[in-house]
Specification:
The complex is a heterotrimer of chains A (about 240), B (about 400) and C (about 425). Chain A has helices at about 45-50, 75-85, 100-110, 115-130, 145-155, 175-190, 200-205, and strands at about 1-10, 15-30, 35, 60-65, 65-70, 85-90, 160-165, 195, 210-215, 215-220. Chain A has about 240 residues and is of the alpha/beta class. Chain A has a 6-stranded mixed sheet, sandwiched between helices. Chain A has a 4-stranded antiparallel sheet with strand order 2-1-4-5, with helices on one face. In chain A, a hairpin with a 4-residue loop joins β1 (about 1-10) and β2 (about 15-30). In chain B, the strands form 2 sheets. Chain B has a 6-stranded mixed beta barrel. Chain B has 2 domains: about 5-45 and about 275-400, no CATH class; about 65-255, no CATH class. Chain B contains 11 helices and 12 strands. In chain B, about 50% of the residues lie in helices and about 20% in strands. Chain C has 15 helices and 11 strands. Chain C has a 6-stranded mixed barrel. Classes of the chains: A alpha/beta (about 240), B alpha+beta (about 400), C alpha+beta (about 425). Chains B and C meet through α2, α8 and α10 of B and α2, β2, α8, α11 and α13 of C.
Chain lengths: ~240, ~400, ~425
């Protein structure tokens, strides 16, 4: 599904050269749910941007669903992103003056899809996240958890094979976070590959597979056979 | 106030700053040149015609009936008008200042076709001419009744006397206008005219002509089939007499047409209609331009304040006083405007050069440039003041909030 | 898809109402000001006879003073002398040609209802009407025989016919002009070439004359004529004949020369004629004669006044200021949208998608600005008309060409103004924007 070999990513400014990723290799198979952890500055966001075709790589190989993306131009990358990848962001990134229906509509608009099919998909996606009855509301009228559900609906509407989530619960309280996680697991169980970036090790443990990024490298791939059920965000010990 | 941080902030948003600077440069170019053109025209319009415009009016007549005898008609009409109460003087003439149509000839101090001539406007008048126009005789004398000669339409003969304006005398006699009195000059290459009088000022009919101050009065009454009569009244009597003269002359004789009875003030307005119109257009342009530029600055500054809200809050939290924030935005605008006005100064001179070429305008006076720069600085500061004031009101507490 | 962009553009415009109003207003006043002045210049510089403008030629002969040109630098007189006009009429090889001058007279209608009135006329040859394609309401022009036989015939303008005959078909009737009876042979329909190209010397934007009579009558009846008259030396004899034989120029001379050959032949004739005249002691300046077609003539005579051109360029500069303004405002506006743009990029919008979307937004602003600007231009033209009086009344209306031009100008201006901000907006890196929001 996703295969990265020896990827290097260098950011250059006039003064410094930052190696965000070096010799980064990873393979994710179809249907997997992978958690990516690491301290801030470790390169996990860069990894996500590259995986989501938002950034290009400096060196190495990246195959997405068997396609070598290195030589794709901007248009082809946009198309691939639109069709195969769904994004979920920490801060939801809904467009404030579009209602829920129109927000979920955004990625579909960039495909040649007729109005009827779009409508069906949007309603279906909102139904999955349990917000079908609030289609005409604007994001500001929803709670944070609901907004993130809309964002998930937006990601699902295009039936992507591959879902990239960047701290999807980072801005949510624990109850909402829990329901969002359950939703993601449910989606994964229906066959969608999910890569989730998080800095929270407990959250990472809920994923069947978890990797850690450190200094721009996949430093460790650990596997616990059966994840222990743990509550999210355990109250801090006094 | 430290300029350096402003400069480095500006250098990160070069395009925006350059756009405003360029806009200011263009604005300055247009405004300064427009003001200059307006003042040039205003100067032309303010030139005095030399005649008593307040109390004079002019009309045209034209004979058409079979029994129309111009000679007796003119004598009778003038006699009649001159006797009306409230009339100071009346004269038959071919034209008048500001009318735009008239007769011109060349005058020279020598005879012959190769003599250097001075072009002058000609007015045919009789002994009441000086009084009827209300011009001031500086030296010499007026025409006498027995000097007046009837002139046919196709005649080439010129009377032996003439009254000239001071400007014409001065141009003919190398700047020494007093020397002209009593001298003989030549018209039509060979015909002598003795200068018997000099009037202070009387414009030629064409207000756009370079020699507009050069005028020659000759003692002729014309038999051209039609002509004009200039009437001067006592103060306050003009409007009444304009009506009465027209009605009475028509009542006296119906075989000639009387048209275009207009006061010299109306004639002046009409004469400078295009000047006035052009000036009004330029003024409207200046106002629109100032408003657009100012609104543009306000719009951009408001945006930049909004975008930097958090930054401003942080600065406030770190101890910046309100007036530091205000000064920051004012100074930023001043720096951008300064670039604009420097470029604008060069462009202003460039446009002026084009205008000099196309419109025969004089070169722009140097002080227009600094005046324009000051104006634009002022507009800029005024425009940015509102948004800057708003920036001061931003609460330091904003720093701790995440927007 | 365009519908979607349209919807998004409207949303975006609504999001910053003050900013959008500022941009629309800037474009509107810019378009209003420039369209007002462009319209006046366009009317001044319009081709008054598009179908024939390259076949009609104003004739210039240098019969002027040996010591100085008619005008510096070495510019030919714009009119010709009577002697030359007569010689050309007699022998010059043109399909049609005419000498002409302004005349003026009092017209006396019959009966007491209408008072006598003074009006300007045009003394010309019978070819005038065919040459300048004048439309006839009744009757026709007169023939060359009428010219030769000094017939007392006249063609009236529609207005004169209204005034004297109440608008009815007056062909065959008589009219009293300057104390003489003329037989009406034709009445023109509305005829108002702008500019009045066949006599720009006496005012390119003056009304056409009220009546037309055979040119030859000027000499035979010693008619009162008017219009610009310039002389470089006094005439040798007294009286009207002396004036006719003088070196004064006062006649506009036009020839219709449809083909290149005819034009060459005509110019050759002029040069030969000038050489003959030199032998007789006239034409003391170097050989220099010209034929100018209509548009060349308009250019040469400076029909579009320099001050009008200047004001036009000033207002175009003003439009540029307005556009710079709009660019600045769009730039800031789009920069606040970088989050949304980044998001759309992440969700699969291509650069092209976003470029079109934002260009459409600029286009809508331009279109609305253009429509309002048209209204302002209409008002501006009313203002110009009020300021300049009747001399410009035919220069100040917006025809359909101008309306289309104004809207196009507004949209193109707005798109140009929008291009750079849009380009910048579309090049926002999607990733960078999503991290910090």
């Amino acid at each position: 599904m996703l295969k990265m070999n020896n990827i290097r990513k260098v950011f250059r400014t006039e003064v410094v050269e930052t190696h965000a990723l070096r010799d980064f290799s990873l393979q994710v198979n179809e249907g997997e749910f992978v958690a990516v952890t690491g301290p801030s500055g470790s390169g996990k966001t860069t990894f996500l941007n590259i995986a989501g075709l938002l950034e290009t790589i400096t060196a190495g190989e990246y195959f997405l669903d068997g396609v070598d993306v290195k030589d794709l131009n901007d248009n082809q990358r946009s198309k691939l992103r639109n069709e195969k990848i769904g994004f979920i962001f920490q801060s939801f990134n809904l467009i404030p003056d579009l209602n829920l229906f129109d927000n979920v509509d955004v990625p579909l608009r960039y495909r040649s899809m007729n109005a009827k099919e779009r409508k069906e998909r949007i309603e279906n996606a909102l139904d999955i996240v349990g917000l079908a009855n609030r289609m005409k509301h604007i994001p500001a009228q929803l709670s944070g958890g609901q907004q993130q559900r809309v964002a998930i609906a937006r990601a699902l509407a295009g039936s992507p094979r591959f879902l990239l989530a960047d701290e999807p619960t980072g801005n949510l309280d624990s109850a909402m976070a829990e329901s969002v996680m359950e939703l993601l697991e449910d989606i994964n169980s229906k066959g969608t590959t999910i890569i989730m970036v998080t800095h929270d090790p407990k959250l990472a443990l809920r994923a069947p597979r978890s990797i850690a990024v450190k200094d721009g490298k996949v430093s460790e791939v650990s596997r616990v056979e059966s994840p222990v059920e743990m509550p999210l965000h355990e109250p801090a010990l006094a | 106030m430290e300029i350096k941080p402003i400069l480095s902030a500006l250098s990160r948003n070069k395009t925006g700053a350059l756009l405003i600077a360029l806009q200011i440069a263009l604005t300055m170019t247009i405004i300064v040149n427009s003001v200059f053109m307006i003042q040039q025209r205003q100067g032309q319009m303010e030139r005095e015609s030399g005649i008593d415009e307040k109390n004079t009016f002019l009309f045209s007549y034209m004979g058409f009936a079979d029994d129309f005898n111009e000679k007796t008609r003119i004598v009778e009409d003038l006699d009649y008008i001159r006797k009306m109460p409230g009339i100071v003087a009346a004269v038959q003439t071919n034209s008048a200042p500001l009318t735009g149509g008239g007769w011109s000839m060349g005058l020279a101090r020598e005879t012959g076709p190769d003599a250097d001539g001075v072009g002058t406007a000609i007015y045919f008048v009789d002994e009441q001419g000086v009084d009827a126009f209300g011009v001031k005789l500086l030296a010499g004398r007026n025409f006498t009744a027995d000097e007046i000669i009837w002139r046919e339409r196709t005649s080439n003969d010129w009377p032996g006397q003439g009254v000239v304006t001071k400007a014409l005398a001065s141009d003919l006699f190398d700047g020494d206008w007093q020397a002209a009195l009593g001298k003989t000059v030549y018209i039509n290459e060979t015909q002598p005219i003795n200068i018997i009088g000099i009037v202070e000022k009387m414009q030629a009919p064409w207000n756009g002509w370079r020699g507009v101050e050069r005028t020659l009065l000759v003692p002729n009454r014309t038999l051209f089939g039609g002509g004009r009569i200039m009437v001067r009244t006592e103060p306050g009597e003009r409007d009444r007499l304009m009506k009465e003269v027209e009605e009475q002359l028509f009542a006296n004789y119906k075989g000639r047409l009387i048209r275009n009875v207009r006061s010299m003030e109306e004639i002046r307005t009409e004469s400078y209609q295009a000047h006035n119109g052009m000036n009004t257009i330029l003024k409207v342009l200046i106002v629109c331009l100032t408003v657009v530029t100012a609104l543009g600055i306000i719009g951009l500054a408001s945006f930049s304040v909004n975008r930097r809200k958090k930054q401003i809050g942080t600065r406030r939290a770190l101890g910046a006083r309100k007036k530091d924030i205000l000064r920051y935005f004012m100074l930023e605008n001043f720096l951008i405007t300064s670039v604009g006005v420097v470029v604008g100064a060069a462009m202003t001179i460039g446009l002026n050069m084009v205008l000099v070429d196309m419109l025969n305008l004089p070169k722009i006076d140097w002080y227009y440039i600094p005046a324009g720069m000051l104006l634009l600085w002022f507009i800029g500061q005024l425009a940015v003041f509102g948004p800057a004031k708003k920036a001061c009101q931003i609460s330091p507490a904003l720093a701790t909030r995440s927007v | 898809m365009l519908g979607y962009y349209f919807k998004l553009s409207l949303l975006s415009i609504k999001r910053n109402p003050i900013l959008s109003t500022l941009m629309v207003a800037a474009i509107a006043v810019g378009i209003g000001a420039s369209m007002t002045t462009i319209t006046v210049n366009y009317a001044m510089g319009a081709n008054p006879v598009p179908q024939k403008s390259d076949q009609l030629f104003a004739i210039q002969l240098d019969s002027w003073d040996p010591n100085r040109p008619y005008r510096e630098p070495d510019i030919l007189p714009d009119q010709v002398t009577y002697m030359d006009a007569m010689a050309l009429m007699k022998n010059a090889p043109a399909k049609r040609q005419t000498a002409m001058s302004k005349v003026f007279a009092v017209i006396e209608p019959e009966g007491e209802d209408v008072r006598p009135f003074e009006t300007e006329g045009r003394a010309t040859f019978g070819d005038f009407f065919a040459m300048f394609s004048t439309p006839f309401l009744y009757g026709n022009g007169w023939s060359r025989e009428s010219d030769d036989n000094l017939e007392m015939v006249t063609v009236l303008s529609k207005e004169t016919n209204e005034k004297v005959f109440g608008g009815e078909n007056s062909v065959g009737k008589f009219i009293r002009i300057a104390g003489r009876e003329y037989k009406v042979v034709g009445v023109l329909d509305d005829y108002r070439p702008i500019p009045k190209y066949y006599d720009v010397t006496n005012g390119a934007f003056r009304e056409p004359e009220g009546y037309y009579i055979p040119f030859n009558l000027i000499a035979s009846l010693e008619l009162s004529r008017s219009g610009n008259t310039n002389c470089w030396k006094p005439s040798d004899e007294d009286g009207f004949q002396g004036f006719l034989n003088s070196e004064c120029v006062w006649i506009q001379f036009w020839a219709e020369l449809p083909t290149e050959n005819e034009q060459q032949e005509y110019l050759g004739f002029l040069n030969n004629y000038a050489k003959q005249q030199k032998e007789l002691g006239r034409f003391p300046r170097p050989l220099n004669n010209k034929i100018n077609d209509v548009m060349e003539w308009m250019e040469l005579q400076g029909v579009v006044q320099d001050s009008a051109k200047i004001v036009m360029w000033l207002s175009v500069m003003f439009l540029m200021v307005c556009l710079l303004n709009t660019i600045g405002l769009l730039l800031t506006k789009f920069s606040t949208k970088s989050g949304e743009i980044g998001l759309r990029r992440a969700l699969g919008a291509s650069k092209r998608n976003l470029f079109i979307q934002h260009l459409m937004e600029s286009g809508i602003i331009g279109f609305v600005g253009g429509i309002i600007g048209l209204g302002l231009a209409w008002g501006g033209l009313k203002g110009v008309s009020a300021l300049f009086g009747k001399n410009v009344q035919h220069l100040v209306y917006l025809d359909s060409n101008m309306v289309i031009f104004a809207i196009l100008l507004a949209i193109v201006s707005a798109l140009l103004a929008g291009a750079y901000p849009t380009w910048r907006a579309c090049n926002i890196q999607p990733a960078v924007q999503l991290k910090t929001q």
